[in-house]
Write a structure and sequence with these properties.
The structure holds two protein chains of two kinds.
Chain A: H1 19-31, E1 68-69, H2 81-84, H3 99-103, E2 113-118, E3 124-127, H4 128-134, E4 138-145, E5 150-160, H5 161-166, E6 176-181, E7 204-208, H6 209-213, E8 218-223, E9 226-227, E10 237-239, E11 252-258, H7 265-269, E12 293-296, E13 304-307, H8 315-318
Parallel strand pairs in A: 1-4, 2-11, 5-12
Antiparallel strand pairs in A: 2-3, 4-5, 5-8, 6-7, 6-11, 8-9, 8-10, 12-13
Chain B: H1 2-8, H2 10-33, H3 42-70, H4 79-101, H5 106-115, H6 117-134, H7 138-144, H8 146-152, H9 155-169, H10 175-189, H11 192-196
Helix pairs in contact in B: 1-2, 2-3, 3-4, 4-6, 5-6, 6-9, 9-10
The chains are: A alpha+beta, B mainly alpha.
Subunit structure (chain B): Heterodimer of a catalytic subunit (MsrP) and a heme-binding subunit (MsrQ).
Keywords (chain B): Cell membrane, Electron transport, Flavoprotein, FMN, Heme, Iron, Membrane, Metal-binding, Transmembrane, Transmembrane helix, Transport
Main location (chain B): membrane
């Protein structure tokens, strides 16, 4: 049985009014570690760099006009907006899942532009306004599967990456597409301190040209009817629904078409754990997590364990991209 | 003066320690049920209780050297209650992993324990902790005689296993697990003479 879901059917966004006070209070507990040893940040919370963020986020998502809703046949329930925006892996704002919503309050994605260059006939820079004006916004409901074995179902707003790439005319040498996140330690505190988990910045990702031009590959500018909140990768991010979430790079400033396979952040850190392709594959385990099942974060308190689907359930559309490839070798 | 008070009121001190160990759990429960832990609290709950167990284990192992150093022998009486709290935190930690993360599925739990070295280590540490917890009653202690101390020296293995379990479990950000490993090593260094007995004579270094 399948049913269509509209974003209006879903629990409205709840506001965490109390959040800042709570974080302060947990810092207090960390400070009295001698008496209450099980403090939030461990006994070393004391030595964490203080991140100064405004009380209210400087950037508030704005409503977006949706030109087209792509019919969705997913039978799954959408992940509520409050969870999509409060459970994030965005190390630029801290490694805990609740860090990005808090530490991105000072992040301002306006104005913004993206540079597209490399193996293209017309390298150029697009302003965000121009991008929004020239691309009709579609709503697409995709599953998002994190390599850490949790998943969500998210109503993204955006357009096919292919539409943007076509505008710059790739040359015949363009075999790969490299992406880069903004590098701005003043706005992204994780890039300046241990808060960011000690990974190299700026974050970089990559796709093959065939993957990048695939109609499912989305450049997202919003979710749940509005522009992207800072913690979800404002103002523009990649969404590749058949790959593990770390491929879906956030806050993109640069797209470069290349002849050779570009380096990617997690692969550079631990190539035995993270491959270039990173297709969702229940048969190939990650050393730290079984990939056979996943926890679906939906509307309940407890996330259900469900079986993970090959290519995250998008096999019909994308399996042909990998015909003849050993997916154990090219993980 | 403080010393005399603590010595006379050791039961009060124990009650206070129970309260101090229980308080973070109440805090955690309150945060969870008032939905302040973000979209998916499972990872937070697992880390909080795991680190809590490790912090408490370090405190437990600090008691003897500190008591010896400041000559407050009566402090040794607090070790059992702290050790039992380590076990309680560890059981909650594993319980959350099994019931919330793995949705209570036994097949997944067994698979994870076998496949992931960091979880294997964690489970070995938990089984050892359970053995120490069960044998912590005075009656059993007396029955076990000299074997009791032999069994309870396994805590020195536990204090190494748990930080390694933590270190292996993280994707990046190894700073904090490294510090935990160093603290574990320091706690063992404080007991170097006692631990020497476990090293074969041939390769035993001469340390004063």
């Amino acid at each position: 049985m399948t049913k269509k879901i509209l974003s209006s059917d879903i629990t409205p966004e709840s506001v965490y009014l109390n959040r800042r006070n709570i974080i302060k209070a947990s810092g207090l507990i960390a400070g009295s570690a001698a008496v209450s040893p099980a403090a939030h940040a461990g006994i070393f919370g004391l030595f964490e760099d203080e991140v100064v963020v405004p009380e209210q986020a400087v950037y508030q998502p704005k409503p977006l006009t949706i030109a087209k809703k792509v019919p969705n046949n997913l039978s799954e329930v959408l992940t509520p907006e409050s969870k999509v925006t409060s459970h994030n892996n965005f190390y630029e704002f801290g490694t805990d899942k609740t860090d990005p919503i808090e530490n991105s309050k000072g992040f301002n994605p306006e104005p913004w532009s993206i540079r597209i260059d490399g193996e293209v006939e017309n390298p150029r820079t697009f302003s965000m306004d121009e991008i929004l004006k020239n691309h009709p916004i579609e709503e697409r409901i995709y599953r998002l599967r994190c390599v850490e074995a949790w998943s969500m179902v998210i109503p993204w707003l955006g357009f096919s990456l292919a539409d943007l790439i076509k505008k710059v005319n790739p040359t015949s040498k363009a075999k790969y597409v490299a992406f880069q996140t903004l590098y701005d330690p003043k706005q992204m505190p994780g890039q300046a301190s241990r808060l960011g988990g000690g990974i190299p910045y700026p974050y970089v990702e990559g796709l093959t040209i065939a993957e990048a031009m695939h109609p499912l590959t989305l450049l997202s500018v919003g979710l749940y009817g509005k522009t992207l909140p800072a913690q979800n990768g404002a103002p523009i991010r990649l969404v590749v629904p058949w790959k593990y979430g770390f491929k879906s790079i956030k806050s993109i400033v640069k797209i470069t078409l290349t002849e050779k396979e570009p380096p990617t952040t997690w692969q550079a850190l631990a190539s035995n754990e993270y491959g270039f392709y990173a297709n969702v594959n229940p048969q190939v385990d990650h050393p730290r997590w079984s990939q056979a099942t996943e926890r679906r974060i939906a509307d309940g308190f407890r996330a259900e364990r469900i079986d993970t689907l090959m290519f995250n359930g998008y096999g019909d559309e994308v399996a042909s991209l990998y015909k003849g490839m050993d997916l154990r070798k090219f993980y | 003066m403080v010393k005399t008070w603590v010595a006379r009121h050791i039961s009060t001190v124990k009650v206070m320690l129970h309260g101090a160990a229980l308080l973070p759990l109440c805090w955690l429960a309150w945060q969870t049920f008032s939905q302040q832990l973000g979209g998916d609290p499972v990872q937070y709950l697992t880390h909080f209780t795991g680190k809590g167990a490790l912090n408490l284990l370090f405190i437990t192992l600090l008691i003897s050297p500190v008591a010896k150093w400041i000559k407050w022998g009566f402090l040794l009486q607090t070790r059992r209650l702290l050790g039992l709290w380590v076990l309680a935190y560890a059981l909650i930690h594993v319980g959350i992993f099994w019931l919330l993360d793995l949705a209570g599925r036994i097949d997944l739990f067994v698979e994870e324990v076998i496949k992931r070295p960091y979880i294997t280590l964690g489970l070995i540490a938990l089984l050892l902790l359970i053995a120490l917890g069960i044998t912590s009653a005075n009656r059993i202690r007396r029955k076990m005689g000299r074997n009791w101390q032999k069994l309870h020296n396994w805590v020195y293995l536990i204090v190494l296993l748990v930080p390694i379990h933590y270190y292996w479990s993280v994707k990046s950000a190894v700073f904090e697990p490294t510090i935990y490993l160093i603290i574990a090593a320091l706690l063992l260094l404080l007991r170097r003479q006692k631990l020497m007995a476990y090293i074969p004579k041939k390769i035993r270094p001469k340390v004063a």
